[in-house]
Amino acid sequence: MIIENVTNQQEVLVKMVLDTWYAKTAQLDKLLSDLSDEQLMEEVAPGRNRGFYLLGHLTTLADSIFPLLGYEKQAAHLWEPYVKMPDKKNDDLPTVSDLRKDWTIVITVLREKLAGISVQEWFEKHTAVTKEDFLREPHRNKLNVILSRLGHLDYHLGQMQFLKPRGENGE
Amino acid sequence: MIIENVTNQQEVLVKMVLDTWYAKTAQLDKLLSDLSDEQLMEEVAPGRNRGFYLLGHLTTLADSIFPLLGYEKQAAHLWEPYVKMPDKKNDDLPTVSDLRKDWTIVITVLREKLAGISVQEWFEKHTAVTKEDFLREPHRNKLNVILSRLGHLDYHLGQMQFLKPRGENGE
Fold it and tell me: Which CATH number fits domain A2-163: 1.10.340.30, 1.10.10.10, 1.20.120.450, 3.40.50.150?
């Protein structure tokens, strides 16, 4: 009875984190469908990153979840231009239309993979931590990868919101 | 052995969420110490909310965690001006200096309260959900309150970052 109850709570917690991840990625999907390619080419605030740069950045950070869970990246080519290079220092960027596709592929495949991970597995170590470190730092598990990416997604979602005209819930 | 292991994982998960909350509130503390009152009076982007409005908004949303966990608010007077009223529609706002103090009080008292909640309690229902609804929706527990406020904090942290001059990690 106790085990059932506790296991139940584990399931609930995994569901809480995953559902939040799906809700936030859906929020970005919605924002992307509201924005034209031209709007995505604009800076989110004067002198700051452009919208599509943040889209590339969020796509490659979501893509970086795959290897941490033991899977292959879907869009490995985005790491260099959207993490290693700052915005506006690179003339050789994919088109906004390609980026939209990459985002959708990464999020869709990721969702399939996440759905196949058992509750127990979520509490196992991710691939970038050693067994020894994991004994000392058991929070470095697979679920924590999603939790930390969630924060990162929210942070930039707040900024990308500024691409919408003022008055359209653009605060 | 199984119970111990599972209970351990519960503890780990609570710790993950609370540590993330402490880290993010510390990130806002750091940003606030880097910004002058004058900088906080500025809009985060042209035509958008002013920095101190977002500070009041984040303070009152953190304050709103107390009643959901069964405690009293520390700064109930902030709900009306920073949630019910939009920015720039209210001439009767507290000073930035008062707001900084409110933020610190709310976060400090909250930390004390959070530290006193047992792992088991985190999985119990928060006060705004009925027993009947909680049976159907067990994710509406106390820990989920922190998880959802975390997302909200990150969202606005990304925006408040723009108050820092460009080039100072202000992207």
Answer: 1.20.120.450
